[in-house]
Amino acid sequence: IAALLIALLLITDYVASTTAVEKSSASGFKAICQLINLATQDAHASESSQIDDSIESTLALFNLTISAPKALQELTAAEAAAAEIEKEGFAEKVHCAGEAKERCVKAATRAKDHGKSKEQRSLEKAAAHPQILEAINATLMQIDTAVRELKAEKRSAQPMEVNKLLLQALGTKPDGISELKLTKWSSDRATSCGKPNADTAGTVVGDNLATDIVCLCSSDASNTDNKACGTKAAGPTVQFSGTGNELKYARKTLAGECKTQFPAQPLTASNLQDAIRHFEIEVARPQGTDDVLTNTLGFIKGAGSTGCSGGGNGNDGSCVYYGRSTANKGPIRPA
């Protein structure tokens, strides 16, 4: 059922999307620009990236209520719970030693504020029954595990880690300084950027957005006035003739054009998901003779055999081809 709903959603979005104009990669340019505009922003911590402290303190209170009620009673009565734990005369010190100290302090603080709640009194009564106590303890352990896993997940999504992943997706900062080269160049532009009539992807595509947008929109020695991406001026010139050729200036120009043509949305998980979804729909759009060419960003004509050469007068186009699996012919997703 889920797969069917996704399929229907993709079909609806495809019908509603803008169909590429003849010899135009403008719709593909918009799709990749939306990703670039988001990826060039710095991620910041949001309120939702933190675990509500009341969840942990309530869990600590419930745990101490059933495991060490005497310790809870002493800590709640003390003026400063942390100091009470360190006292030699603290009878239940074993329950709050080491890493458990912080949780005991949280439990005591929560007890002072909410210790007389209906839920807390019900828990104390239930804990008097061994069978019920066992079930409560098992449930609390499950909740504790879930909270720990959620905290670990939140830590992995902190701004520094997110920024690292965004830069990896970009390939390089579009500042005109950071180095970007055709390290996987192969023979010519069409082979490097892909030939949609075959299974094999372009040799330089799919690793990062920087190289992909250069394949999509740039001019070269054979196509000196490439305006396929809808830019006011011709796309920046790149020589697809060797692995050492520098792309940083072309990358900066095209990233600047992205900002000019498409106002950037704030970097949020929702906006990033929407941009990825738009990109995937655009790549899946059928093209060429009898609509048999897919998994291609930009435009491609005819049989697609001449490939993503930057042209558009035969079986070629200004595009990026991500390839197909030789096993099942399914589309290969960009990295």
The secondary-structure class comes to mainly alpha
User: Radius of gyration, rounded?
Assistant: 29 Å
Biggest β-sheet description: 2 strands, antiparallel
- The number of E-state strands comes to 2
Please tell me the total number of domains: 2
| Distance linking N and C termini | 28 Å
Membrane topology: Lipid-anchor; GPI-anchor
Subcellular location: Cell membrane
Domain Trypanosome variant surface glycoprotein B-type N-terminal: 16-330
Protein name: Variant surface glycoprotein 1582
What would you note in describing this structure?
With 335 residues, the chain is mostly helical. It folds into two domains: 16-45 and 164-321, no CATH class; 49-156. The protein is 50% helix and 2% strand. It has a two-stranded antiparallel ribbon with strand order 1-2. Helix 2 runs antiparallel to helix 13. It is elongated. The protein starts with a helix and ends in a 14-residue tail after the last strand. It comes from Trypanosoma brucei.
Nutshell version of this structure?
By secondary structure, the chain is an all-alpha fold. The protein contains 13 helices and two strands. The protein has two domains: 16-45 and 164-321, no CATH class; 49-156.
Summarize the topology.
Layout (H helix, E strand, L loop, with lengths): L1 H15 L9 H14 L13 H15 L1 H9 L3 H6 L13 H15 L3 H9 L3 H27 L2 H12 L18 H5 L15 H9 L30 H14 L7 H16 L11 E3 L20 E3 L14
Antiparallel strand pairs: 1-2
Characteristic key phrases:
disordered N terminus; 335 residues; 2 domains; elongated; GPI-anchor; two-stranded antiparallel ribbon; lipoprotein; 50% helix; mainly alpha
